[in-house]
């Protein structure tokens, strides 16, 4: 069988037309009835399988059911595979295929046209924007040209030169002002840096002074505590001295009272001795006294004289003790005078005998003759002598106590003087600089302590 020649290309045919033509030729070849004499009559050809899109398209248009004789909604019968000897291809609907093909092509063209349309819209937008910008620039150029032309017409070359010169002068003036402003800013910056350095230096000095004053404050607090303790100790010692002085006053009063009693007893003894002597004279008559009686009388007179001397010494000591107490009360007013008189407080001076005492001694030169009277008088004189000795011992003990009290009072005065000197030195060293808050307090405390001590000493 001779082979049919392929149709050649048609002039002016596009690629899409050529593809459609070839597709139609293939469909014609596929759908032709290839029945030969050697084959049995073919069974009804199965319905061609369609794509889901084609099936949906046919279902909506009811084309496949009408062509196959199936009502809409009925399922087609299952295909049975054709035998190899009796295979018959189905005959599709050519107009349907062509319509589907044209629909696909139209959709593709629609997509392409949409893309082209968007591209064209963008290009037209850009071109329109560019044209609009170009028109604006042209308008600006025209305006600038008009302004330039007006300027060239209104100003001459000399005027333009003058304006340029003025602008140059203004530029130089502005530059000069800017330089001056910069110079001033630099000077202000340097001055500020200098002030900052000075402030930092003063801050460091202030911190050092603060640390120094803190140390000084702590030292003054410790010194104040020490001075307070010393003041308390001095106050206690002053109270003890005051109690000792009161005790000495009571002892001096007691001694003066005993002295008065001794004087009364001495007066009574003198009266008794004179009475005994007159009795002896009456009893003796013209007879001379016995030598032994004279010896006893002389001894008694000697003892009486000795007792009188001891009494006078005791009176002098008591008077000096009273003077000492009075001087200690006046020591608060004159401390220096008290120190100078310290050695003269305890000196004892025996006063001279009075005429009455000399007369009494003269009367005692003539003793009694009776032994019993003389012995009783001797015993009484010994007793009084022992009492006077005991009183003298008590006075000596009181004198030692007063000496101890005076020494303790002097030590207290020296301590107060030392505290006052220390306060004066600290006040003089800190007078040129800032005054601390504790120095006046220390001075006030010292003044109060001294005033209290002087007031107590006056009492």
From TrEMBL:
Residues 304-331 form a coiled coil. Residues 1-90, 272-296, 348-380 are annotated as: Disordered. The chain crosses the membrane at residues 438-456. InterPro entries: Cent_Immune-Sig_Mod. Keywords: Coiled coil, Membrane, Transmembrane, Transmembrane helix. CDD domains: CC1_T3JAM. This is T3JAM protein. It comes from Hirundo rustica rustica.
